[in-house]
Design goal:
single chain; globular; 5 strands; 5-stranded mixed β-sheet; 5 helices; alpha+beta; binds tetrahydrodeoxyuridine; Cytidine Deaminase, domain 2
């Protein structure tokens, strides 16, 4: 059983690998699968700025590429180089990617290792357009 605290710690650790020489904003994410595995990710920037990938999508794409499709929760930790922000919200693109694979009650742990809160996907992405709209 992985709790929020352990998932936040995994996100914080993943943040150490952030490649962010342009923004100097370092993000780590840890994604928990329904089967109990953890996939981590960090943001990976690029000299051609739009080629940058966020930490959350790195973690999700790693997991999906390994055959995982069912997810329980994600923890996200971010902040400027040398400090950890009290709160780092996922960007809109990452929220949309979560909506592709995760149910409305999917958990997001946002904050930092010391203090974080639990949110759900439908709280952070209300009125979403998903594959359910296409069926
Ligand atoms: N970033 C993430 O990794 N996740 C988010 O949800 C917010 C933004 C990254 C992208 C970029 O490398 C840096 O933070 C500044 O936007």
């Amino acid at each position: 059983m992985t709790d929020g605290k352990a998932l936040m710690a995994a996100a914080q650790k993943a943040r150490e690998n952030s490649y962010s020489p342009y923004s100097h904003f370092r993000v780590g994410a840890a994604l928990l699968t329904k089967s109990g595995k953890i996939y981590t990710g960090c943001n990976i920037e690029n000299a051609a700025y739009p080629a940058t990938v966020c930490a959350e999508r790195t973690a999700i794409f790693k997991a999906v590429s390994e055959g995982e499709r069912e997810f329980e929760a994600i923890a996200i930790v971010g902040g400027k180089e040398g400090e950890t922000a009290p709160f780092c919200a996922p960007c809109g693109v990452c929220r949309q990617v979560m909506a592709e694979f995760c149910p409305p009650d999917f958990t997001l742990y946002l904050g930092n290792e010391e203090h974080f809160e639990r949110y759900t996907l439908d709280m952070v992405l209300p009125f979403s357009f998903t594959n359910r709209d296409l069926s």
